[in-house]
Amino acid sequence: MSDTANNPLLQLSFRIPFDRIRAEHVQPAIGELLREARARIDALAADTAPRTFDNTLMALDTITEPLDEAMSVVRHLESVATYPELRTAYNAVQPEVSSFYSGIPLHAGLWQAIRTYAATEEASALTGTWRRFLTKTIDNFRRHGADLDPRNKARLEAIDMELATVTTKFSQNVLDATNAFELVIADEAGLAGLPPSAVAAARASAAQKGLAGWRFTLQAPSYTPVMMYLDDRGVRQQMYRAYAVRASSGEYDNRPLLSRILELRRAKAELLGFRNFADLVLHDRMAHTGQRALEFLEDLKHKTERQFARENRELLEFRRSVEGADAPELQPWDVAYYAEKQRAALYDFDEEELRPYFPLGRVVDGLFATVQRLYGIRVAEEPGVPVWDPQVRYYNVADGSGKFLGGFYADWYPRENKRGGAWMDALITGCPADLPGSKPHLGLICGNLTPPLADRPALLTHYEVTTIFHEFGHLLHHLLSRVEVRSLAGTSVAWDFVELPSQIMENWTWEREPLDLFARHYQTGASIPAELFEKMVRARNFRSANAQMRQLGFGFLDLALHIDYDPARDGDAIVYTRGILQQYSPAPLPPDHAMAAAFTHLFASPVGYGAGYYSYKWAEVLDADAFTRFRTHGIFSPEVGAEFRDVILSRGDSEDPAELYRKFMGRDPDPNALLERSGLLAG
Ligand SMILES: [Zn+2]
């Protein structure tokens, strides 16, 4: 039973009643909010009063707010506390909601209203955030088809619809092709080299399928240990080959879909007046054009090549030092295996040794202490707030002066009703108390960290500690936002800028001073021994040129397909991309290697990371470079912290990110800091 008056999704306020929202509330509430939003858009378009910023642009900024907030609550619950009825309800509303949003720029009356406003004197006198909001709105509408005639609008909608279908099928094929493979080892002797955890997982996987022996699959937790540790070269080769040809033939063949996706993306770019899909997608990102993104990758490639060659030479030498001078060149299925042996020989470092120093409670307290020193903010838990699971904690965040900024939920541990990974999300995008439209921010942080045992607190890996710091960086970007236009606030920034606030936080988990603040043995209280810390730091950059070249190769593949690739001239896309990847691979790729057919980052959704894979490296350049200021002035420097907060964390997208970056650094980004951090500067 659910009527409008008692539907909690229709009365959301800062204290979200997570304990009362049920699946049956979703469809009535979202249906109602969609109706309201449509009516408000029509009313805005039909308004005959003279156009002003408030009745046009600010109105547009707030029209979808109740729908945005209700959908973010529903989406969130579906990902952390799902059950069949909730999933069904979410799936039922999702298509209509997404078609509502993509229809906004195609609303002729609304577009007319915006252009009428843009022609007023008030509009031409706008400055700062207000001017940017106007410019970006017009730009956004255009890039989403506002200027097209009705026939071309229909074509655009048809392209988008087909892209949604084809990319969904692409992703399902990868999943099905991955699941279609299994390899069962019957003889225990065949498991030589594997760590006990991988053996146990393979045994459990076989038992679950009612099989004897040990079962291996192409899913990462099964595949990766085989590549790294299994002594049996033949099995490594078989697994590698199966992985490399996923979804490239037979029942789950993605080749025709890949061609179609590229064709549709080219057609869409052309329809909207762009040279190629990369230019369409990157137009409002920091890189702006595909060409600029390419140059960025080229530069890093030149600076990494020499060390890449050296690492590959050293790996072969290592193999020969162990197996004799006539041991053969490395094949792709040998690389991770010998690299792991080389790493063990060089560093004698076991990640697991660090766990006792990272009990979750201390790590989280240390994180709060770090941001208090850097940004002057105080984080305090508030018990008794309604949550979606008893494990969830709620925290308030206040300024140094005690002014309330907002709150967030933290949900750290895995559960069966919760999706994997770690992420931050915004629930309410507010505005500070001293600005008009004042309203506190509300967000959340989720992880799937190692849970506590009966007699032991949750002891994290260093990677998990880094993950918490990373996601908390995104959360700060949201909670410290001081932007009056909601759609330009917080983390709503260009994709190649959004990882700066998060990735920069990771740096504090690699430095002695902050580690001493929170990395304490859970039984003895001792800090990490110097020798262990040294090993951790040295092992960090092992084969970093290979890691970097791999990412660069994916970035080049992505841009090549979305800028240059011409099927008439270049032929089959799989063959074409194999030629590119070969330049970044430490070993010769097999002739049927078809990685692009399973590249879900690029092809599992209409845009996804398409033409944006370079962003990973781009953001690393920004964060490594920006962190040098903390390095120079003290990594707890409140002055540098205040500046970072002022010009980056509080500014959202209210100004061009390149400009914000220059305000903080006094210059453009310099890739040397990343090369130095990765141990690649010496060349
Ligand atoms: Zn992130």
Commentary on this structure:
With 683 residues, this protein is mostly helical. It contains 28 helices and 7 strands. It has helices at 23-46, 53-63, 65-80, 84-103, 108-118, 121-124, 128-143, 150-179, 196-208, 220-229, 233-244, 255-271, 277-282, 290-323, 332-347, 360-375, 462-479, 500-506, 512-518, 530-540, 544-563, 567-570, 573-582, 600-603, 615-633, 638-649, 657-665, 672-677, and strands at residues 183-185, 214-216, 378-381, 393-398, 404-411, 423-428, 441-446. The strands form 2 sheets. It has a 5-stranded mixed beta sheet. It has a two-stranded antiparallel ribbon with strand order 1-2. Helix 17 (462-479) runs antiparallel to helix 18 and helix 26 (638-649) runs antiparallel to helix 27 (657-665). The longest helix is centred in the middle third of the chain and has 34 residues, at 290-323. It starts with 22 loop residues before the first helix and ends in a 6-residue tail after the last helix. The structure holds zinc ion. The site of zinc ion has 4 residues, from helix 17. Zinc ion binds next to helix 17.
Topology, element by element:
Layout: H1 23-46, H2 53-63, H3 65-80, H4 84-103, H5 108-118, H6 121-124, H7 128-143, H8 150-179, E1 183-185, H9 196-208, E2 214-216, H10 220-229, H11 233-244, H12 255-271, H13 277-282, H14 290-323, H15 332-347, H16 360-375, E3 378-381, E4 393-398, E5 404-411, E6 423-428, E7 441-446, H17 462-479, H18 500-506, H19 512-518, H20 530-540, H21 544-563, H22 567-570, H23 573-582, H24 600-603, H25 615-633, H26 638-649, H27 657-665, H28 672-677
Parallel strand pairs: 5-7
Antiparallel strand pairs: 1-2, 3-4, 4-5, 6-7
This protein binds zinc ion.
Zinc ion binds next to helix 17.
